[in-house]
Amino acid sequence: KNQVEQSPQSLIILEGKNCTLQCNYTVSPFSNLRWYKQDTGRGPVSLTIMTFSENTKSNGRYTATLDADTKQSSLHITASQLSDSASYICVVSSGAGSYQLTFGKGTKLSVIP
Amino acid sequence: IAGITQAPTSQILAAGRRMTLRCTQDMRHNAMYWYRQDLGLGLRLIHYSNTAGTTGKGEVPDGYSVSRANTDDFPLTLASAVPSQTSVYFCASSGSLGTGELFFGEGSRLTVL
């Protein structure tokens, strides 16, 4: 069964600090891996999409990495801000023509002053 | 740019009643999806549509139906609501099935009593 596991479940950090969120997956076939940010009470918003051949991709202070060999991804947030408080969801796609997206349960990040 | 509009934003419903959640997109995306999000679980796919006139079942389709009469609209109907359908429902769209960025609506919070 396809699975996406995220860790930690929740995280509290001080404003200005960096943090890294983890995502391990067992999804086959693999097409791409996505990170979404979901603010409380809002819909998820895409941060990055990475294909098999991409090792790293940045979106402002967010940097995602992908190791397709070990089936691991990470999302690094630099110089955190209060507005980074949200759930971060890792999603793996099985490819074009497939409706199958496997969602992780998310990591809830709280940035405190 | 509106993106995806969902209605209602929240609703309390008596068990056994019929309910339709509305979803409209203005991006001319071919693929549309309905997910439910429950505490402690990842987003789960209910139904999807590859293009106008076609629909398919996702992971948790029982008790739900959808239609895709045109490109823009993708309503989700609960024929006879049950308490286990209490959830937050998200409509999403993408350019084509399984590829590209997934755009989400802001969600419809449904409580079935």
Describe the structure.
The complex is a heterodimer of chains A (113) and B (113). Chain A is mainly β. Chain A is built from no helices and eleven strands. The radius of gyration of chain A is 14 Å and the shape is globular. The relative contact order of chain A is 0.34. Chain B has no helices and eleven strands. In chain B, a hairpin with a 6-residue loop joins strand 5 (44-49) and strand 6 (56-57). The radius of gyration of chain B is 13 Å and the shape is globular. The termini of chain B are far apart. The chains are: A mainly beta (113), B mainly beta (113). Chain A binds chain B through residues 4, 31, 34, 36, 41-46, 49, 89, 91, 93-106, and chain B through 4, 31, 33, 40-45, 48, 50, 56, 58, 90, 92, 96-107.
Q: Helix count of chain B, per DSSP? A: 0
Measured by DSSP, the beta-strand proportion of chain B falls in: over 45%
Write the element-wise H/E pattern of chain A from the N-terminal end onward: EEEEEEEEEEE
Structural class of chain B: mainly beta
Strand content of chain A: over 45%
Q: Could you tell me the radius of gyration of chain A in angstroms? A: 14 Å
Q: Summarize model confidence as the mean pLDDT of chain B.
A: 94
Q: How many β-strands of chain B, per DSSP?
A: 11
Number of strands of chain A: 11
Please outline the major beta sheet of chain B: 7 strands, mixed
Q: For the residues shown, what is the average pLDDT of chain A?
A: 93
Radius of gyration of chain B, in angstroms, nearest whole number: 13 Å
* Major pleated sheet of chain A: 6 strands, mixed
- Poorly predicted regions of chain A: none
**Helix coverage percent of chain A:** under 10%
Query: Class by helix and strand content of chain A?
Result: mainly beta
Which runs of chain B of at least 5 residues are low in confidence (pLDDT < 50)? Answer: none
Shape of chain A: globular
Morphology of chain B: globular
State the helicity of chain B in percent bands: under 10%
